[in-house]
Amino acid sequence: MTSAAEQEAVPDHAPERAGPPVWPGAPTPLGARCRTGPDGVTGTNFALWAGGAEAVELCLFDPDGTELRLPLTELTHEIWHGFVPGVGAGQRYGYRVHGRWDPWTGARWNPAKLLLDPYARAVDGDFTLPPEVYGHVRDWPQQHVADTVRDERDSAPHVPKGVVVLDDDDWSDDRRPKTPWQDSVIYELHVKGFTRLHPGIPEHLRGTYAGLAHPAAIDHLVRLGVTAVELLPVHQFAHEDHLLRRGLRNHWGYNSIGYFAPHAGYSSSGTTGQQVGEFKRMVRALHAAGIEVILDVVYNHTAEAGELGPTLSLKGVDNRGYYRLQSDARRYADYTGCGNTLHVVQPQVLRLITDSLRYWVTEMGVDGFRFDLAAALARSMHDVDMLSPFLAVIAQDPVLRRVKLIAEPWDVGNGGYQVGAFPPLWTEWNDRYRDAVRDFWRGALPDVRDLGYRLSGSSDLYAWGGRRPYASVNFVTAHDGFTLRDLVTYERKHNEANGEGNRDGTHDNRSWNCGVEGETDDPGINALRLRQQRNLLTTLLLSTGVPMLVAGDEMGRTQGGNNNAYCQDNAIGWLDWALPDDPGRAQLLALTRRLLALRHDHPVLRRRAFFSGRPQGTDGLRDLAWFTAEGAEMTEPDWYAPTATLGLYLSGRDIPGRNERGEQITDDSFLAVLHAGHRPLEFRLPGPPWAETYELVVDTGREDQSAPPGTEHAGGGIITVEARSMVLLRVRT
User: Fold this and answer.
1) Is 240 tagged catalytic?
2) Catalytic-role residue among 147, 307, 372, 554
3) What is the DSSP letter of 702?
4) pLDDT in tens, 344-387
């Protein structure tokens, strides 16, 4: 529906020179694969699923941008395919897909738009989103019908291209750590944000995969004691138009457009396939250090947004085949808050996702995935369904069922909150843990019932269907929200730098600023804030379940109160490596290392089974017991009474399971005392048979955290617990 003048102004980009022949090739595998064809001729096989398309053109690009269009005439089970002799690694390409333009029925084919191959292994170029990359006329005067007017301008000069990549790596020299779930400690980091300011990394490698693979970066991870890094999205992503208009960029990367391609912006070695090798070398380096690699993946939506979004890939390949549409097929079903939702019930969408997952495991070496808004993937036609095709396919897949699977167990649609509902094989981000721990330490819990469940593995959520305590990924902070330091420094979000009038980001921070909003020179408040950070870290790392730390929290990183720094590709979103120069921050780092070493050394802190809470021997000792400040076991009324203090006894002699030699696992027993009150507390230590003597191991009330306190106390005696602090004592018999 363009004017004659507009149509006449469209340049003719049809090829003027003769291209190579296109042989039939094969419909599998999808994507562009270098191979040997008939008579030993080398070339590349191209295959694209485009269910309702009428024709498909393969577009090859020379280094100077000259385009050569080659029709793919072979069609097998809705897959258009062809083998092009002589085409090899490094070749840039895209597709033009022909079909009906009928937005009222969801058909949005537009051959004027060059499309990224959904299976492209590498992407070269940036998404800048000028009007030419939209399938509709973005600046149409009547905006309410703009998405129905097809734009005939060629997008090829303005969009990135896929790159043919040679697959020649068998990973025979790689050794995966294969850390058991119960022994795992996850460290969530951003490839660029973690390395961009690191003084020990050569400047030309900072912000890249090679920077994360550098010994200076890995040394921090190893000395800290984490077992896995969870990387914020590294799939190729695009920046949203509203950010580009404000001079900002998508920093976090939750706007995927290439599910097989490592994001080219994190490559130091090049973007015409070199990013693939650089990513693999990063994985190898982390594996050699005993660290697993988990990817945060965004299969719930893409960067093409809704009906007013750009046409970059799937929307132009087969809009109806890839996206969930409303009954009014012009509109997209949006369970993600990002404009669209992938239609995971469709076989070709399931294939895209599972092919991508297997590729990252088998050919890129990763060890697991954290699924953003996983509830959106578990929806059948509308409702979340734990027997959905996506979850069923994952459960039976011989590759994927063996890797770590983490769900963000919610989306923004009705019925989308699914914490505790995912089936065995899956672990979950446990936001109920986050909320209970935050509320306790800020003095906002009405009682300690919820806290008791969270500290001991959340059996109320996960003790079903064979699930274990490690189904709970415990966290106090994540990339989304306040950092640990900001959690005790701000009560209100300060997102002005995002350019959205401070309207973005959650209002529900469950934070406490210790009396002053923002940074202060008051030494008393700063000491309290450091103590609160020690409390939160100690609680997290001693709780049953899998702890997740956010990069920089161990050093007191701040975002200046920004709780939604998704668009802050700058010092706000980067880790400041000068923080440990401050004595208080150095002590925080020392405590984190010591707590992780303690967790590593003591299986009672890494249980594979839930506590029973019942007596385990003739002396009546329980594997888990709770105590009041008077040293008495808690009764039912105690759980409902307002209190700021909780004692937790973990028995090391009653740990279920056996070691690799079939021997019973035994360990020390521990008593943890959490006190969120604003005055010091006299706590009576349980006497025999619980313990004759206790050794003080951790005291967050102390400023010097470089070494354990080592003080001994008699069972039945009284210790003083400082205001708003936590102590951990080892039982001596």
Assistant:
1) no
2) 372
3) -
4) 999 999 999 999 999 999 999 999 999 999 999 999 877 888 98
